[in-house]
Amino acid sequence: MYKQLIRPLFFCFDPEKIHHFTFSLVRVTSKIPGFSALYKSLYLVNDKRLEREVFGLKFKNPVGLAAGFDKDAKLYKELSNFGFGFIEIGTLTPKGQDGNPKTRLFRLREDSAIINRMGFNNGGVQEAVERLKSNSGVLIGGNIGKNKLTPNEDATSDYEICFDALYDYVDYFVVNVSSPNTPNLRELQDKEPLTQLLQTLQNKNLAKPKQKPILLKIAPDLTDEQLLDIIDIVKETQIAGVIATNTTISREGLQSENKTEMGGLSGKPLTKRSTEVIRFLSQKSNKAFPIIGVGGIHSADDAIEKLEAGASLVQLYTGFIYEGPALVKAINKKILSRL
């Protein structure tokens, strides 16, 4: 029904406007008695065999929603009814910011892809904290970044502010230094500044009575040498793991009219590369740390490939938009069929 009826209708409208409309639709329908139960009955797979314990957390199933969809923690409860085992909010910054000028979100239909140059648009970390205070049982990841106007030499402070604010309200943290849509942000992926940033956050973490897993989200555009640096940095700082991967700046092989738009590319064109990065990190590190696989998952088989390449968990974003919520159920069913 989604791909035959709902998606063609939604795709007639501006992507960012329809995103907000969909949010409102899910929120309103979820308040109607019986609708939340209906969503769960359609998409949630309840089976103990799907449970995963990763970096000290118990996930009901290994399929999560990637950051960027529910940036401000406005809909995480309702979205969990669509079968996700965990929801990642953000990217959040210390101060609210509008992000880049519109139009900034583009569908590439022929490529089953999206280009975005949103630019960390969010209401600020404190607004999200207020919404998270009413959480009751949804496993939440907090994806954190720096404000656009914060120079890189002061970036660590922005990440610390977000870490401190979210600490009591999220289950794990994701350090985002890999978005291509904030000027100079990816420079923080260089070995020295990245080690310093992660070590600072880890030191704060270790000073807490109970530590929260800290993950690093990396770009798919890193070279093998840079990926080896990532392995060294994870080992040195003892963070919990890696999310592979963010969006790409590559435009290789695209067919769509919007392929020249600036921003990060997600969707099917990323499927192969993100799996290659997962496999490289897993093999070269000798499976030393967990990996969350994300990038181009549009089918249950795509998810299985990520898991077989070395991912412990997977996340959806663009595939969720193109394939609909039935994809979450299909992946979990496929996992069960292989046990």
UniProtKB/TrEMBL annotation:
Keyword S-adenosyl-L-methionine: no
Pfam families: DHO_dh (PF01180)
InterPro entries found in the cross-reference section: Aldolase_TIM, DHO_dehydrogenase, Dihydroorotate_DH_1_2, Dihydroorotate_DH_2, Dihydroorotate_DH_cat, Dihydroorotate_DH_CS
Molecular functions per Gene Ontology: dihydroorotate dehydrogenase (quinone) activity
Binding site for substrate: K71, N116, R117, M118, G119, F120, N176, N181, N246, T247
Domain of life: Bacteria
Keyword Chloroplast recorded: no
Binding note for cofactor: Binds 1 FMN per subunit.
UniProt subunit comment: Monomer.
Documented EC number(s): 1.3.5.2
Name the UniProt record assigns to this protein: Dihydroorotate dehydrogenase (quinone)
Functional summary from the UniProt entry: Catalyzes the conversion of dihydroorotate to orotate with quinone as electron acceptor.
Membrane topology designation: Peripheral membrane protein
BP terms from Gene Ontology: 'de novo' pyrimidine nucleobase biosynthetic process; 'de novo' UMP biosynthetic process
GO cellular component: cytoplasm; plasma membrane
Top EC group: oxidoreductase
Positions contributing to FMN binding: A67, G68, F69, D70, K71, T91, N143, N176, K217, T245, G267, G296, Y317, T318
Homology family: Belongs to the dihydroorotate dehydrogenase family. Type 2 subfamily.
Cofactor(s) in the UniProt record: FMN
Location of the protein in the cell: Cell membrane; Membrane
UniProt cross-references to NCBIfam families, sorted A to Z: PRK05286.1-2 (NF003645), PRK05286.2-5 (NF003652), pyrD_sub2 (TIGR01036)
Gene: pyrD
